[in-house]
Design goal:
The complex is a heterodimer of chains A (288) and B (355). By secondary structure, chain A is mostly helical. Chain A is 73% helix and 2% strand. In chain A, strand 1 and strand 2 form a beta hairpin. The longest helix of chain A has 32 residues. Chain B contains 9 helices and 22 strands. Classes of the chains: A mainly alpha (288), B alpha+beta (355).
Amino acid sequence: MNKTINQKAWFFVVPVFVLVAFNAVIPLMTVVNYSFQETFGNNVFMWEGTRWFKQILQSERFHAALGRQFLFTGIILVIQIPLGIAIALSMPKEGPWVSVCLVLMSMPLLIPWNVVGAMWNIFALPEIGFLGHTLNGLGFDYNFTQQIGDAWFTTILMDVWHWTSLVVLLSYAGLMSIQPAYYQAAEIDGASRWSVFRYIELPKMKKVLTIAILLRFMDSFMIYTEPFVLTGGGPGNATAFLSIDLVKMALGQFDLGPAAAMSLIYFFIVLLVCWVFYNLMMKNEEQS
Amino acid sequence: MSKITLKDLSHSYLYSQSKKEDWALRDVNIDWKDGGAYALLGPSGCGKTTLLNIVSGLITPTKGQILFNDDDVTLNNPVERNIAQIFQFPVIYDTMSVYDNLAFPLKNRGISKEEIDSKVLEIAEMLELKSTLYNRASGLTADGKQKISLGRGLVRSDVNVIMFDEPLTVIDPHLKWVLRSKLKELHQKINRTMIYVTHDQTEALTFADQVVVMHEGQIVQIGTPVSLFEKPKHTFVGHFIGSPGMNILPCEISSGNVFIDGNKIETSIVNTKKENYSKTEVGIRPEFIKFSNGGIPIKISKVSNTGRHKIIDSECSIGRIKILSKSNEEIPSDTAFISFDKKFTYVYGDDWIIE
């Protein structure tokens, strides 16, 4: 193999390099810059070393927000993934209802996030919202603005409403790619419905489900707009997830140094979880 | 173990069937004896797979009945019919080991562990899967996977019939031979009814005792490989079986004699009463044409030597004629006369043989 060596080819990479620099590297480096220094504005910086990182990692406030974040992400994954698969399984495979179902499923995904938050806020208002009014009418003491349990319930319900469709659509695509011969063979082998799901459908959906779980993990772990509009992080700090807490710290209290350190820690957690998850899935893939 | 009878079977995938073309299968009547090896042969889209799926119970026919041992099973599902079917592309359960794949049909039927174990090992031995028995099935090559599919079909000892839907499509030519003879051997060993769908005549003729030739949703002939070759009942069979296929030449019938462009032809038919056919043709296989001093004049356009014999492309006044001769035989150059072996010269009226 005689490859022509021509360093001019690097010029083709320049546009991408510039683009990535401006939309990712430079903003990120700014944050890194803030995270090691203290500033009082006027472009005056003082070197603080790893102080902000230590402070964040030891702060109870951060631990609480992180705990809430993992709890929230865990709950929505546990609900959305099985629910999404179940809905995908019960959707028709052919005929005119396919498009109807697909359009209905895509609807929530098309609504802007702050609109979702506003919709659910109004929908759940205890006095006048349809959900709140109905629940109270049924004898439940429901008020998401006052009670922690209700706030969590409403936030989770909103997220399930908004994002389960994504899991449904991905699972449905996975299901549709299964050759009819698999079902026929299973029928002839005398497989039960559960066996068909366990040994045909689930393994064939594995790839799309990996993507679904990763996407849902990342999105829910970084959720901001919807709970901000719905509960504003309240009551108290009960639904102040990581990004809400971060914005409070950065823009509310103007603690730029600690906020920058927190951003970086936040970023590394997302990166780490994705990396571990992806590697586990790939390792599994190699074995098979 | 049972004999299978298909009675006046017709099937259409459409809601309304107004034309002949709307039917995927038309008026199929077959008797399959217990323990026979049968092939369903025909080009793609002729209804073979539809027929197979009707026998296995994956499709319910629009009209007609399926009987297993005189019991009507038309509305029964595949499990109730107790059949095995192997598909064109390997179907394996990815997450299971080879062993579990083979054991799956038995496990679903609640068979004891010891029996499953002995059956699976026996089949694995037969299909040479023993070395990979505890590996994950998804890691195997295409033919390894297809062997698993075959194995799942063969592992149950009580099935009424084992059906193969072009099972060797994905297999290497070399391995095709091996597996095909293995199937044949297996058939003799377990003596169970086997139905083998294929569009490959070699596959059909080597595997089956009886070949069912299908064309446009109809059965055109059922017979032994030899009878399909020597006496095709339909011009399609003549075309489709044999390489090169039968020569079909337009002819006239008048006062009991058959003429090709004015030349009188001796044929095997006794009764040449002219009936109301829209077309009449003479069928003669290339193997049964000889060069002679008189007869039909032809012009030779091409001679190809395949090693064992020569295929001669020639033209006469009413069309092309292919002739097969031994490779050491002298071929006349340019123009010649040919004559047909009377015993193997048939007359077809509207594509069906006149006897």
